[in-house]
């Protein structure tokens, strides 16, 4: 298993325990963070923007939000992770159980330079009450 996969194992664990500073600290200052079209979380540049405009809203709009990675596909500087999102809409109580694929890009210094998520946006919109 490569160093980038090891990094991601640590980051998913950190996110799961609420250690967001560790996750943000692994990001390049100009990380290109891409969310699926149709979700209320716009694409972001930079760790602070990700924290304020993705992590913050997701964790307040979904009670008990969790990200459970299943498989890590090591492509060197590009790593794909499959898994499951879960939580419950804070405003409506609708459960979220949605599979995901995360594609992570790493720079030569080991910092995360890019992220893109693929998931069922319809399930997300139902849980968020925007559908």
Explain this structure:
This protein is an alpha+beta fold and about 130 residues long. The chain has one domain: Nuclear Transport Factor 2, Chain: A. About 35% of the residues lie in helices and about 45% in strands. It has four helices and six strands, in the order ααββαββββα. The chain has a six-stranded mixed beta sheet with strand order 2-1-6-5-4-3. A hairpin with a 5-residue loop joins strand 5 and strand 6. The longest helix has 15 residues. The radius of gyration is 14 Å and the shape is globular. The mean pLDDT is about 95.
Query: Strands of the largest sheet, in order across it?
Result: 2-1-6-5-4-3
Could you tell me the number of beta strands?
6
CATH architecture: Roll
**What percentage of the residues does DSSP assign to strands (E)?**
35-45%
* Shape type: globular
- Rg calculated over all Cα atoms: 14 Å
Overall average pLDDT: 96
- The secondary-structure element order is HHEEHEEEEH
Q: What structural class do you assign from the helix and strand content?
A: alpha+beta
The rounded distance between the terminal residues' Cα atoms is 40 Å
Largest sheet: 6 strands, mixed
Indicate how many domains the architecture comprises: 1
DSSP helix count?
A: 4
Question: According to CATH, what is the topology?
Answer: Nuclear Transport Factor 2, Chain: A
**Contiguous runs where pLDDT drops below 50 for at least 5 residues:** none
Helical percentage: 25-40%
CATH classification class: Alpha Beta
């Amino acid at each position: 298993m490569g160093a980038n996969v090891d990094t991601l194992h640590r980051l998913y664990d950190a996110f799961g325990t609420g250690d967001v500073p560790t996750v943000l600290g692994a990001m390049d200052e100009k990380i290109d963070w891409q969310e699926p079209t149709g979700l209320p979380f716009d694409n972001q540049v930079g760790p602070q923007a990700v924290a304020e405009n993705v992590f913050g809203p997701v964790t307040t709009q979904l009670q008990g939000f969790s990200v459970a990675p299943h498989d890590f596909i090591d492509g060197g500087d590009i790593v794909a992770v499959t898994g499951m999102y879960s939580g419950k809409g804070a405003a409506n109580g609708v459960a979220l159980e949605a599979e995901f694929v995360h594609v992570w890009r790493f720079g030569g210094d080991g910092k995360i330079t890019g992220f893109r998520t693929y998931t069922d946006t319809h399930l997300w919109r139902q849980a968020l009450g925007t559908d």
